[in-house]
Give the backbone structure.
Amino acid sequence: MADQSIPQARDREATRGKSGRGPGGDTGPTGPTGPLGSGSTETARNAESTTAPGGVSRRRLLGTAGTTGLVLGAAGAAAGYAAAPSSAATPLTSLGSERAMFHGKHQPGITTPVQARGHLIAFDLAAGAGRREAAALLRRWSDTARRLMAGEPAGSRDTDVARDAGPSSLTVTFGFGHSFFGRTGLDQQRPAALDPLPDFSSDHLDKNRSNGDLWVQIGADDALVAFHALRAIQRDAGTAARVRWQMNGFNRSPGATAHPMTTRNLMGQVDGTRNPKPAEADFDQRIFVPEEPESGRGAPAWMANGSYVVVRRIRMLLDDWEKLSLKAQEDVIGRRKSDGAPLSGGSDATETTEMDLEKTDGSGKLVVPINAHARITRPDQNGGAAMVRRPFSYHDGFDADGVPDAGLLFICWQADPLRGFVPVQRKLDRGDALSQFIRHEASGLFAVPGGASEGEYVGQRLLEG
């Protein structure tokens, strides 16, 4: 669990539009919000309200509440810097009206704050399906995503599952796996950054729940809205592709706390203290593929403004973790469990207090242990490696021995995984105190192209180039 996550800022790149998914749905006011958020800034919505045709009023957000990322970076995360959350909580009644935009320079769901509910799903193209079928599928998927993110029905066969809800910050993000390019005859367009990840000692990977030709990430602040999108994407696949694996996750719901704050993961640790911020001068350079590729590992032109996502299912060995004393747990992470402050900060430290890696106690022992997770994942301990993490927690019941099958759906974004995820995970592999309490059980790496312009579908520059 790297010491970086997206704090709970509700900094949507959102506007509000039609919020009812069935005929006669509410229509809210529209207008851009602030910068895309990975916990960097927060935008207060105007306290305006409009009355929909049906007489139902929608109130703009009075404040911003965040969802989160999770500390788990033994999953392999790097680090960045966090901004303090806003002091105003999100009114629960306004959540449905938040809308993320489908069209844009980047796909939604990368710097969008993590939502309360999420689904990850990978597909393999059906036997005989190739480039033409893939293009038709991405065209269908893009149209469905655009409709649903606007709070509209998916189409004439809409299931009405989310009929009464607004957009609820829904995002749908699409990516291509390594095998996709061979199946579509596009091997020459496969980026070097999509080369398979190296093996790590902490890997216990299930190949049936790893990789895939196509990958879709769905996030929303309402469970039915998220499921509605998942079902629509599955139906749209038709005979062109079949589901390879699916994973379901969750985060704290906006408004669940008295004021916006970084969430806790399933180990009870404050998780989301550090993450690169869009306001930082080198943010785009670290997270997104440039429009002018570099030499060497430069990405093909169709990946301009895109990103690479590493997806890992990381099981937390909660029974073992919960046997540790409070002090032992804090030493493993390097932060106080109560508020996320660094162990080196003293009684007046806060979550965002800078960690002092050299501070020692009266006996000369390092206050932040040498193998503490927060120490190992810092960018200054990894050659500046950084990535944006947008994970979800998961709980899939119990195994045959009664052990919880729970943990983190680790999702991290970077311009090049060889410079982001890989160096940090290698270092974690060599001695992270957290490694004995987690297990990497599935893995995937996907190329996520830039956002679609008006009238364009995601991946069009690849599939029709």
Summary: The chain has a mean pLDDT of 83. Residues 131-149 form the longest helix (19 residues). The two ends are 39 Å apart (CA to CA).
